[in-house]
Fold this protein.
Amino acid sequence: MAIVGIDLGTTNSLACIYRDGRAELIPNELGGYKTSSAVSVLQDGTVLVGAAAKERLVSHPEATAASFKIWMGTQKALTLGDRRFKPEELSAFVLRQLLEDARRYLGESVEEAVISVPAYFNDDQRCATKLAAQMAGLTVKRLINEPSAAALYHRYSTQSGDSQMMIVDFGGGTLDVSIVDCFENIIEIVAIAGDNRLGGDDIDRAIAAHFFRENGLVEERLEPSLRASLYRQAETAKIALSSAPAAAISIQRGEDQYSLLLTPPLLRRLCEPVFRRVRGVIGRAMKDRERVRAIDDVILVGGSAQLPVFGDFLEELFGRRPKVAAQPDEIVALGVGLCAGIKERAEDLQDLVMTDVCPFSLGVATYSYRGDKTPHMAVLIPRSSMLPASHQGTFYTMYDDQRALRFEIYQGEGYFASENLKLGEVEVQVPPGPAGEQSATVTFTYDIDGILHVSARSSGGDRRDRLILNSNLHLSESEREKVMARISEIELAAQGSKRNSSCWSGPCGCMNRCRAAGGSWWPA
Ligand code: ADP
Ligand code: MG
Protein backbone atom coordinates (compact mmCIF):
# COMPACT_ATOMS: atom_id res chain seq x y z
CA MET A 1 0.00 0.00 0.00
CA ALA A 2 1.32 3.40 -0.95
CA ILE A 3 2.39 6.03 1.53
CA VAL A 4 1.08 9.39 0.43
CA GLY A 5 3.02 12.62 0.87
CA ILE A 6 0.87 15.57 1.89
CA ASP A 7 1.63 19.29 1.86
CA LEU A 8 -1.09 20.50 4.21
CA GLY A 9 -0.81 24.20 3.44
CA THR A 10 -2.41 27.26 4.98
CA THR A 11 -3.85 28.23 1.63
CA ASN A 12 -3.47 25.20 -0.60
CA SER A 13 -2.90 21.51 0.04
CA LEU A 14 -1.45 18.91 -2.30
CA ALA A 15 -0.89 15.16 -2.29
CA CYS A 16 1.93 13.25 -3.97
CA ILE A 17 3.12 9.67 -4.17
CA TYR A 18 6.36 8.12 -5.22
CA ARG A 19 5.97 5.50 -7.94
CA ASP A 20 7.77 4.29 -11.03
CA GLY A 21 10.88 6.11 -9.90
CA ARG A 22 9.37 9.56 -9.55
CA ALA A 23 7.30 11.81 -7.33
CA GLU A 24 3.85 12.10 -8.86
CA LEU A 25 1.32 14.73 -7.85
CA ILE A 26 -2.23 13.51 -7.36
CA PRO A 27 -4.91 15.54 -9.16
CA ASN A 28 -8.12 16.47 -7.38
CA GLU A 29 -11.62 16.02 -8.73
CA LEU A 30 -11.32 19.24 -10.71
CA GLY A 31 -8.15 18.13 -12.41
CA GLY A 32 -5.79 20.51 -10.57
CA TYR A 33 -3.10 19.65 -8.05
CA LYS A 34 -3.80 22.41 -5.57
CA THR A 35 -6.82 22.00 -3.32
CA SER A 36 -7.75 25.16 -1.45
CA SER A 37 -7.48 24.57 2.28
CA ALA A 38 -10.97 25.95 2.73
CA VAL A 39 -13.94 24.24 4.36
CA SER A 40 -17.58 25.16 4.11
CA VAL A 41 -20.60 23.55 5.74
CA LEU A 42 -23.55 23.19 3.39
CA GLN A 43 -27.19 23.50 4.33
CA ASP A 44 -27.66 19.72 4.38
CA GLY A 45 -24.81 19.35 6.90
CA THR A 46 -22.26 17.95 4.48
CA VAL A 47 -18.85 19.55 4.30
CA LEU A 48 -17.30 20.97 1.19
CA VAL A 49 -13.52 21.29 0.73
CA GLY A 50 -11.51 23.05 -1.98
CA ALA A 51 -12.06 25.76 -4.57
CA ALA A 52 -15.85 25.69 -4.26
CA ALA A 53 -15.52 26.11 -0.50
CA LYS A 54 -13.16 29.05 -1.05
CA GLU A 55 -15.81 30.64 -3.30
CA ARG A 56 -18.26 30.38 -0.43
CA LEU A 57 -16.03 32.64 1.68
CA VAL A 58 -17.70 35.39 -0.32
CA SER A 59 -21.21 34.01 -0.70
CA HIS A 60 -21.50 32.24 2.70
CA PRO A 61 -18.80 33.66 4.97
CA GLU A 62 -20.63 32.54 8.12
CA ALA A 63 -20.46 28.88 7.08
CA THR A 64 -16.93 28.89 5.66
CA ALA A 65 -13.37 28.90 6.99
CA ALA A 66 -9.93 29.24 5.42
CA SER A 67 -6.37 29.78 6.69
CA PHE A 68 -7.28 27.83 9.85
CA LYS A 69 -3.85 26.24 9.87
CA ILE A 70 -2.58 29.31 11.70
CA TRP A 71 -4.77 28.28 14.65
CA MET A 72 -3.53 24.69 14.77
CA GLY A 73 -2.44 23.70 18.25
CA THR A 74 -4.41 26.46 19.96
CA GLN A 75 -7.70 26.24 21.83
CA LYS A 76 -9.47 28.39 19.25
CA ALA A 77 -12.71 27.06 17.81
CA LEU A 78 -14.31 28.32 14.60
CA THR A 79 -18.05 28.50 14.09
CA LEU A 80 -19.34 27.32 10.73
CA GLY A 81 -23.10 27.55 10.40
CA ASP A 82 -24.41 26.23 13.70
CA ARG A 83 -21.41 24.07 14.52
CA ARG A 84 -18.10 24.71 16.15
CA PHE A 85 -14.90 23.12 14.91
CA LYS A 86 -11.36 22.95 16.20
CA PRO A 87 -8.70 23.84 13.61
CA GLU A 88 -7.48 20.25 13.59
CA GLU A 89 -10.98 19.06 12.76
CA LEU A 90 -11.10 21.42 9.80
CA SER A 91 -7.67 20.19 8.71
CA ALA A 92 -8.99 16.64 9.01
CA PHE A 93 -11.64 17.49 6.40
CA VAL A 94 -8.97 18.76 4.03
CA LEU A 95 -6.97 15.57 4.58
CA ARG A 96 -10.03 13.43 3.99
CA GLN A 97 -10.64 15.21 0.71
CA LEU A 98 -7.05 14.62 -0.40
CA LEU A 99 -7.31 10.96 0.57
CA GLU A 100 -10.55 10.62 -1.32
CA ASP A 101 -8.86 12.08 -4.41
CA ALA A 102 -5.89 9.77 -3.91
CA ARG A 103 -8.16 6.76 -3.62
CA ARG A 104 -9.92 7.65 -6.84
CA TYR A 105 -6.66 8.30 -8.67
CA LEU A 106 -4.72 5.32 -7.38
CA GLY A 107 -7.59 2.86 -7.24
CA GLU A 108 -6.71 1.88 -3.68
CA SER A 109 -7.21 3.42 -0.30
CA VAL A 110 -4.37 5.14 1.48
CA GLU A 111 -3.80 4.83 5.19
CA GLU A 112 -0.29 6.08 5.74
CA ALA A 113 1.21 9.47 5.11
CA VAL A 114 4.20 11.72 5.42
CA ILE A 115 2.96 15.24 6.15
CA SER A 116 4.90 18.47 5.91
CA VAL A 117 4.67 21.21 8.53
CA PRO A 118 6.27 24.66 8.71
CA ALA A 119 9.74 24.29 10.20
CA TYR A 120 8.76 26.76 12.84
CA PHE A 121 5.73 24.78 14.03
CA ASN A 122 6.05 24.19 17.73
CA ASP A 123 5.26 21.01 19.57
CA ASP A 124 1.55 21.78 20.03
CA GLN A 125 1.16 22.55 16.35
CA ARG A 126 2.93 19.37 15.28
CA CYS A 127 0.80 17.27 17.60
CA ALA A 128 -2.34 18.99 16.30
CA THR A 129 -1.27 18.01 12.78
CA LYS A 130 -0.86 14.41 13.87
CA LEU A 131 -4.26 14.53 15.52
CA ALA A 132 -5.85 15.91 12.35
CA ALA A 133 -4.33 13.00 10.43
CA GLN A 134 -5.64 10.53 12.97
CA MET A 135 -9.12 12.00 12.60
CA ALA A 136 -8.88 11.50 8.87
CA GLY A 137 -7.96 7.84 9.45
CA LEU A 138 -4.29 8.28 8.62
CA THR A 139 -1.19 6.99 10.32
CA VAL A 140 1.59 9.55 10.13
CA LYS A 141 4.87 7.88 9.22
CA ARG A 142 6.77 11.11 9.53
CA LEU A 143 6.38 14.84 9.80
CA ILE A 144 8.86 16.70 7.62
CA ASN A 145 9.63 20.41 7.66
CA GLU A 146 8.26 22.14 4.57
CA PRO A 147 11.51 23.88 3.53
CA SER A 148 13.39 20.62 4.04
CA ALA A 149 10.98 18.91 1.68
CA ALA A 150 11.54 21.70 -0.85
CA ALA A 151 15.32 21.41 -0.45
CA LEU A 152 15.14 17.65 -0.91
CA TYR A 153 13.23 17.93 -4.16
CA HIS A 154 15.30 20.82 -5.47
CA ARG A 155 18.51 18.92 -4.88
CA TYR A 156 17.08 15.70 -6.29
CA SER A 157 15.63 17.28 -9.42
CA THR A 158 18.46 19.65 -10.33
CA GLN A 159 21.38 17.41 -9.34
CA SER A 160 23.29 20.63 -8.77
CA GLY A 161 26.86 20.49 -7.52
CA ASP A 162 27.86 20.64 -3.88
CA SER A 163 26.67 23.94 -2.52
CA GLN A 164 25.07 25.82 0.31
CA MET A 165 21.65 27.16 -0.51
CA MET A 166 18.95 29.13 1.17
CA ILE A 167 15.35 28.09 0.63
CA VAL A 168 12.77 30.79 1.23
CA ASP A 169 9.23 29.43 1.37
CA PHE A 170 6.79 32.30 1.36
CA GLY A 171 3.21 31.05 1.31
CA GLY A 172 -0.18 32.36 2.30
CA GLY A 173 0.25 32.41 6.05
CA THR A 174 3.77 31.28 6.82
CA LEU A 175 7.36 32.12 6.00
CA ASP A 176 10.06 29.51 6.36
CA VAL A 177 13.72 30.08 5.68
CA SER A 178 16.23 27.29 5.74
CA ILE A 179 19.88 27.03 4.91
CA VAL A 180 20.93 23.74 3.43
CA ASP A 181 24.31 22.21 2.78
CA CYS A 182 24.39 19.78 -0.11
CA PHE A 183 27.33 17.49 -0.64
CA GLU A 184 27.22 14.28 -2.61
CA ASN A 185 24.04 12.46 -1.60
CA ILE A 186 23.68 14.24 1.71
CA ILE A 187 21.30 17.11 2.28
CA GLU A 188 22.02 18.72 5.58
CA ILE A 189 19.73 21.39 6.95
CA VAL A 190 22.05 23.68 8.89
CA ALA A 191 19.70 26.39 10.05
CA ILE A 192 16.04 27.22 10.00
CA ALA A 193 14.07 30.24 10.99
CA GLY A 194 10.54 31.31 10.28
CA ASP A 195 7.42 33.13 11.19
CA ASN A 196 4.21 31.21 11.10
CA ARG A 197 2.07 34.32 11.05
CA LEU A 198 3.54 35.95 7.98
CA GLY A 199 2.55 35.41 4.37
CA GLY A 200 0.59 36.53 1.34
CA ASP A 201 -2.52 36.96 3.49
CA ASP A 202 -0.76 39.82 5.27
CA ILE A 203 -0.15 41.49 1.94
CA ASP A 204 -3.83 41.10 1.03
CA ARG A 205 -4.72 42.65 4.38
CA ALA A 206 -2.36 45.57 3.79
CA ILE A 207 -3.94 46.20 0.40
CA ALA A 208 -7.44 46.01 1.87
CA ALA A 209 -6.50 48.36 4.74
CA HIS A 210 -5.14 50.86 2.21
CA PHE A 211 -8.36 50.56 0.21
CA PHE A 212 -10.45 51.34 3.30
CA ARG A 213 -8.22 54.27 4.25
CA GLU A 214 -8.22 55.76 0.77
CA ASN A 215 -11.98 55.43 0.44
CA GLY A 216 -12.81 56.62 3.95
CA LEU A 217 -14.49 53.32 4.80
CA VAL A 218 -14.54 51.59 8.17
CA GLU A 219 -13.94 47.90 7.63
CA GLU A 220 -15.97 46.80 10.65
CA ARG A 221 -19.06 48.55 9.29
CA LEU A 222 -18.96 46.69 6.00
CA GLU A 223 -21.21 43.70 5.30
CA PRO A 224 -19.26 40.41 5.69
CA SER A 225 -19.75 39.39 2.08
CA LEU A 226 -18.54 42.76 0.81
CA ARG A 227 -15.51 42.48 3.03
CA ALA A 228 -14.80 38.97 1.82
CA SER A 229 -15.18 40.13 -1.78
CA LEU A 230 -12.72 42.94 -1.16
CA TYR A 231 -10.11 40.61 0.31
CA ARG A 232 -10.57 38.31 -2.65
CA GLN A 233 -10.10 41.21 -5.05
CA ALA A 234 -7.02 42.37 -3.15
CA GLU A 235 -5.48 38.94 -3.67
CA THR A 236 -6.49 38.79 -7.33
CA ALA A 237 -5.05 42.25 -7.99
CA LYS A 238 -1.81 41.35 -6.20
CA ILE A 239 -1.38 38.26 -8.37
CA ALA A 240 -2.39 40.14 -11.53
CA LEU A 241 0.50 42.57 -10.97
CA SER A 242 2.91 39.76 -11.78
CA SER A 243 1.98 40.22 -15.43
CA ALA A 244 0.05 43.49 -15.69
CA PRO A 245 1.18 47.07 -15.04
CA ALA A 246 -1.79 47.84 -12.77
CA ALA A 247 -4.91 46.21 -11.37
CA ALA A 248 -8.15 47.76 -10.16
CA ILE A 249 -10.18 46.89 -7.08
CA SER A 250 -13.69 48.14 -6.59
CA ILE A 251 -16.82 47.55 -4.61
CA GLN A 252 -20.34 48.79 -5.03
CA ARG A 253 -22.31 49.66 -1.93
CA GLY A 254 -25.79 50.92 -2.61
CA GLU A 255 -25.36 53.87 -4.88
CA ASP A 256 -21.71 54.34 -4.05
CA GLN A 257 -18.75 52.90 -5.86
CA TYR A 258 -15.35 52.69 -4.17
CA SER A 259 -12.15 51.85 -5.98
CA LEU A 260 -8.38 51.66 -5.90
CA LEU A 261 -5.75 51.23 -8.59
CA LEU A 262 -2.94 48.96 -7.45
CA THR A 263 0.45 49.51 -9.10
CA PRO A 264 3.82 47.83 -8.42
CA PRO A 265 5.28 50.87 -6.56
CA LEU A 266 2.18 51.09 -4.37
CA LEU A 267 2.27 47.34 -3.73
CA ARG A 268 5.94 47.57 -2.83
CA ARG A 269 5.18 50.35 -0.35
CA LEU A 270 2.33 48.37 1.21
CA CYS A 271 4.55 45.30 1.45
CA GLU A 272 7.31 47.15 3.31
CA PRO A 273 6.24 46.18 6.87
CA VAL A 274 5.89 42.55 5.74
CA PHE A 275 9.30 42.58 4.05
CA ARG A 276 10.91 44.09 7.14
CA ARG A 277 9.78 41.04 9.07
CA VAL A 278 11.04 38.78 6.29
CA ARG A 279 14.45 40.43 6.59
CA GLY A 280 14.49 39.68 10.32
CA VAL A 281 13.80 36.00 9.73
CA ILE A 282 16.49 35.72 7.05
CA GLY A 283 18.96 37.41 9.39
CA ARG A 284 18.18 34.91 12.12
CA ALA A 285 18.76 31.95 9.82
CA MET A 286 22.09 33.40 8.67
CA LYS A 287 23.21 33.95 12.25
CA ASP A 288 22.35 30.41 13.35
CA ARG A 289 24.62 28.61 10.92
CA GLU A 290 27.47 26.82 12.57
CA ARG A 291 29.65 26.79 9.50
CA VAL A 292 29.52 30.17 7.92
CA ARG A 293 30.17 30.08 4.21
CA ALA A 294 28.84 31.89 1.21
CA ILE A 295 25.31 31.12 0.15
CA ASP A 296 25.60 29.86 -3.42
CA ASP A 297 21.93 30.00 -4.28
CA VAL A 298 18.74 31.49 -2.94
CA ILE A 299 15.75 29.45 -4.06
CA LEU A 300 12.25 30.82 -3.72
CA VAL A 301 9.27 28.57 -3.24
CA GLY A 302 5.62 29.07 -2.25
CA GLY A 303 2.90 31.16 -3.85
CA SER A 304 4.00 34.55 -2.55
CA ALA A 305 7.60 33.99 -3.67
CA GLN A 306 6.33 34.61 -7.19
CA LEU A 307 5.62 38.25 -6.46
CA PRO A 308 8.02 40.36 -8.54
CA VAL A 309 8.22 42.96 -5.73
CA PHE A 310 9.40 40.19 -3.42
CA GLY A 311 12.15 39.32 -5.89
CA ASP A 312 13.09 43.03 -6.03
CA PHE A 313 13.31 43.21 -2.26
CA LEU A 314 15.52 40.12 -2.03
CA GLU A 315 17.70 41.37 -4.84
CA GLU A 316 18.37 44.52 -2.83
CA LEU A 317 19.13 42.38 0.21
CA PHE A 318 21.45 39.86 -1.44
CA GLY A 319 22.84 41.94 -4.26
CA ARG A 320 21.59 39.52 -6.87
CA ARG A 321 18.23 38.23 -7.93
CA PRO A 322 17.21 34.91 -6.36
CA LYS A 323 15.79 32.11 -8.50
CA VAL A 324 12.19 31.12 -8.25
CA ALA A 325 12.12 27.30 -8.10
CA ALA A 326 10.82 25.42 -11.13
CA GLN A 327 7.49 24.48 -9.55
CA PRO A 328 7.23 26.94 -6.67
CA ASP A 329 3.69 25.93 -5.69
CA GLU A 330 4.31 22.23 -5.91
CA ILE A 331 7.88 21.71 -4.81
CA VAL A 332 7.04 21.11 -1.14
CA ALA A 333 4.50 18.44 -2.08
CA LEU A 334 6.98 16.85 -4.51
CA GLY A 335 9.57 16.77 -1.73
CA VAL A 336 7.10 15.19 0.67
CA GLY A 337 6.33 12.64 -2.06
CA LEU A 338 10.05 11.84 -2.27
CA CYS A 339 10.15 11.51 1.48
CA ALA A 340 7.24 9.05 1.26
CA GLY A 341 9.33 7.13 -1.27
CA ILE A 342 12.26 7.08 1.13
CA LYS A 343 9.94 5.79 3.86
CA GLU A 344 8.74 3.05 1.52
CA ARG A 345 12.40 2.20 0.95
CA ALA A 346 12.18 2.79 -2.78
CA GLU A 347 15.41 1.37 -4.16
CA ASP A 348 16.44 4.32 -6.28
CA LEU A 349 16.18 6.67 -3.31
CA GLN A 350 18.17 4.57 -0.90
CA ASP A 351 21.33 6.67 -0.98
CA LEU A 352 19.56 9.92 -0.32
CA VAL A 353 20.29 11.12 3.19
CA MET A 354 18.68 14.14 4.76
CA THR A 355 19.38 15.56 8.17
CA ASP A 356 17.28 18.19 9.88
CA VAL A 357 17.63 20.51 12.85
CA CYS A 358 15.55 21.56 15.83
CA PRO A 359 14.02 24.96 15.03
CA PHE A 360 13.90 26.26 18.64
CA SER A 361 15.55 25.74 21.98
CA LEU A 362 14.06 23.34 24.50
CA GLY A 363 14.71 23.44 28.21
CA VAL A 364 13.39 23.54 31.75
CA ALA A 365 12.71 26.40 34.14
CA THR A 366 15.33 26.70 36.89
CA TYR A 367 15.98 28.99 39.83
CA SER A 368 19.43 30.48 40.32
CA TYR A 369 19.25 30.80 44.10
CA ARG A 370 16.94 30.12 46.98
CA GLY A 371 14.07 32.58 46.89
CA ASP A 372 14.60 33.41 43.19
CA LYS A 373 11.12 34.35 41.96
CA THR A 374 11.66 34.45 38.21
CA PRO A 375 12.93 31.16 36.86
CA HIS A 376 15.09 31.29 33.79
CA MET A 377 15.42 28.83 30.98
CA ALA A 378 18.06 26.11 31.32
CA VAL A 379 18.44 25.02 27.71
CA LEU A 380 18.90 21.29 27.19
CA ILE A 381 18.54 21.16 23.41
CA PRO A 382 19.79 24.37 21.78
CA ARG A 383 18.17 25.70 18.64
CA SER A 384 19.66 24.31 15.41
CA SER A 385 20.82 21.03 17.04
CA MET A 386 20.87 18.24 14.51
CA LEU A 387 17.98 15.77 14.86
CA PRO A 388 17.42 13.39 16.48
CA ALA A 389 18.92 15.13 19.50
CA SER A 390 19.17 13.80 23.01
CA HIS A 391 20.60 15.84 25.86
CA GLN A 392 20.42 15.72 29.60
CA GLY A 393 20.92 18.00 32.54
CA THR A 394 21.17 17.42 36.27
CA PHE A 395 19.41 19.68 38.75
CA TYR A 396 19.75 19.83 42.53
CA THR A 397 17.41 20.45 45.44
CA MET A 398 17.34 23.96 46.84
CA TYR A 399 15.87 23.35 50.28
CA ASP A 400 16.62 20.93 53.10
CA ASP A 401 14.37 17.92 53.01
CA GLN A 402 12.87 18.93 49.71
CA ARG A 403 10.76 15.96 48.63
CA ALA A 404 10.32 16.53 44.94
CA LEU A 405 11.88 18.18 41.93
CA ARG A 406 9.39 19.55 39.49
CA PHE A 407 10.45 20.48 35.98
CA GLU A 408 8.46 22.81 33.82
CA ILE A 409 9.30 22.24 30.20
CA TYR A 410 9.58 25.18 27.80
CA GLN A 411 10.29 25.88 24.18
CA GLY A 412 11.67 29.17 22.91
CA GLU A 413 14.55 31.61 22.99
CA GLY A 414 13.55 33.87 25.89
CA TYR A 415 15.96 34.15 28.81
CA PHE A 416 13.16 33.92 31.35
CA ALA A 417 11.05 30.77 31.24
CA SER A 418 7.86 32.83 31.24
CA GLU A 419 8.79 34.33 27.86
CA ASN A 420 8.61 30.91 26.26
CA LEU A 421 5.93 28.38 25.38
CA LYS A 422 5.21 26.00 28.22
CA LEU A 423 4.89 22.45 26.95
CA GLY A 424 4.19 20.58 30.16
CA GLU A 425 5.84 19.42 33.32
CA VAL A 426 7.26 16.37 35.01
CA GLU A 427 7.93 15.74 38.68
CA VAL A 428 10.13 13.20 40.45
CA GLN A 429 10.32 12.37 44.14
CA VAL A 430 13.64 12.66 45.96
CA PRO A 431 14.68 11.28 49.35
CA PRO A 432 15.01 13.83 52.17
CA GLY A 433 18.42 15.38 52.75
CA PRO A 434 20.29 18.68 52.97
CA ALA A 435 19.79 21.23 50.20
CA GLY A 436 21.89 20.54 47.14
CA GLU A 437 22.48 16.89 47.95
CA GLN A 438 19.68 15.23 46.08
CA SER A 439 19.31 15.63 42.36
CA ALA A 440 17.44 14.54 39.27
CA THR A 441 18.60 14.08 35.74
CA VAL A 442 16.28 15.15 32.99
CA THR A 443 16.68 13.75 29.49
CA PHE A 444 15.17 15.45 26.46
CA THR A 445 14.96 13.53 23.23
CA TYR A 446 13.72 15.41 20.22
CA ASP A 447 12.94 13.01 17.43
CA ILE A 448 13.08 13.37 13.69
CA ASP A 449 9.36 14.21 13.58
CA GLY A 450 10.01 17.10 15.92
CA ILE A 451 8.21 15.53 18.86
CA LEU A 452 9.74 15.84 22.30
CA HIS A 453 10.12 13.00 24.79
CA VAL A 454 11.09 13.88 28.33
CA SER A 455 12.15 11.63 31.16
CA ALA A 456 13.37 12.50 34.64
CA ARG A 457 15.17 10.23 37.07
CA SER A 458 15.99 11.12 40.62
CA SER A 459 19.28 10.36 42.35
CA GLY A 460 18.13 8.62 45.49
CA GLY A 461 15.24 6.39 44.56
CA ASP A 462 15.15 4.36 41.42
CA ARG A 463 12.00 6.18 40.55
CA ARG A 464 11.57 7.35 37.02
CA ASP A 465 8.77 9.45 35.60
CA ARG A 466 8.39 9.65 31.90
CA LEU A 467 6.00 11.51 29.75
CA ILE A 468 5.46 12.20 26.11
CA LEU A 469 4.23 15.69 25.70
CA ASN A 470 1.00 16.77 24.19
CA SER A 471 0.75 13.72 22.00
CA ASN A 472 -3.01 13.86 22.38
CA LEU A 473 -3.21 17.59 22.68
CA HIS A 474 -4.66 17.60 26.17
CA LEU A 475 -7.45 15.22 25.15
CA SER A 476 -8.28 12.13 27.13
CA GLU A 477 -8.73 8.84 25.29
CA SER A 478 -12.53 9.05 25.46
CA GLU A 479 -12.57 12.70 24.38
CA ARG A 480 -10.41 11.85 21.43
CA GLU A 481 -12.70 9.01 20.39
CA LYS A 482 -15.66 11.36 20.57
CA VAL A 483 -13.95 13.92 18.35
CA MET A 484 -12.94 11.25 15.87
CA ALA A 485 -16.48 9.87 15.71
CA ARG A 486 -17.97 13.32 15.25
CA ILE A 487 -15.69 14.09 12.33
CA SER A 488 -16.05 10.76 10.61
CA GLU A 489 -19.85 10.99 10.71
CA ILE A 490 -19.86 14.16 8.63
CA GLU A 491 -20.09 13.48 4.95
CA LEU A 492 -17.88 15.23 2.41
CA ALA A 493 -19.69 16.86 -0.48
CA ALA A 494 -18.34 16.26 -3.97
CA GLN A 495 -15.97 19.07 -4.91
CA GLY A 496 -17.48 19.68 -8.28
CA SER A 497 -21.12 18.87 -7.61
CA LYS A 498 -23.80 21.32 -8.65
CA ARG A 499 -25.61 21.69 -5.36
CA ASN A 500 -22.52 22.99 -3.55
CA SER A 501 -21.18 25.44 -5.92
CA SER A 502 -23.05 28.60 -6.31
CA CYS A 503 -20.50 29.80 -8.82
CA TRP A 504 -22.27 33.08 -9.22
CA SER A 505 -19.49 34.64 -11.19
CA GLY A 506 -19.42 32.04 -13.94
CA PRO A 507 -21.58 31.74 -16.98
CA CYS A 508 -23.52 28.70 -15.84
CA GLY A 509 -23.60 28.57 -12.05
CA CYS A 510 -21.64 25.35 -11.92
CA MET A 511 -18.03 25.02 -10.98
CA ASN A 512 -17.26 22.19 -13.38
CA ARG A 513 -19.00 23.42 -16.44
CA CYS A 514 -18.05 26.97 -15.70
CA ARG A 515 -14.43 25.92 -15.79
CA ALA A 516 -14.96 23.90 -18.91
CA ALA A 517 -16.57 26.93 -20.53
CA GLY A 518 -13.59 29.01 -19.53
CA GLY A 519 -15.61 31.03 -17.05
CA SER A 520 -14.06 33.10 -14.35
CA TRP A 521 -13.40 31.58 -10.93
CA TRP A 522 -13.14 34.99 -9.43
CA PRO A 523 -15.72 37.67 -9.02
CA ALA A 524 -15.70 39.99 -11.96
P1 ADP B 1 0.54 27.86 1.63
O1 ADP B 1 1.82 27.12 1.57
O2 ADP B 1 0.47 28.84 2.76
O3 ADP B 1 -0.66 27.02 1.53
P2 ADP B 1 1.00 28.79 -1.09
O4 ADP B 1 2.45 28.53 -1.18
O5 ADP B 1 0.08 27.99 -1.93
O6 ADP B 1 0.49 28.82 0.40
O7 ADP B 1 0.80 30.35 -1.38
C1 ADP B 1 -0.42 30.96 -1.27
C2 ADP B 1 -0.20 32.45 -1.30
O8 ADP B 1 0.49 32.78 -2.49
C3 ADP B 1 -1.47 33.25 -1.29
O9 ADP B 1 -1.30 34.35 -0.41
C4 ADP B 1 -1.59 33.73 -2.74
O10 ADP B 1 -2.24 34.98 -2.80
C5 ADP B 1 -0.15 33.84 -3.14
N1 ADP B 1 0.09 33.65 -4.58
C6 ADP B 1 -0.25 32.59 -5.34
N2 ADP B 1 0.15 32.75 -6.61
C7 ADP B 1 0.77 33.95 -6.66
C8 ADP B 1 1.40 34.72 -7.70
N3 ADP B 1 1.47 34.27 -8.94
N4 ADP B 1 1.94 35.90 -7.36
C9 ADP B 1 1.86 36.37 -6.11
N5 ADP B 1 1.29 35.72 -5.09
C10 ADP B 1 0.74 34.52 -5.35
MG1 MG C 1 3.28 25.88 1.54
Q: What stands out?
A: The chain has eleven helices and 27 strands.
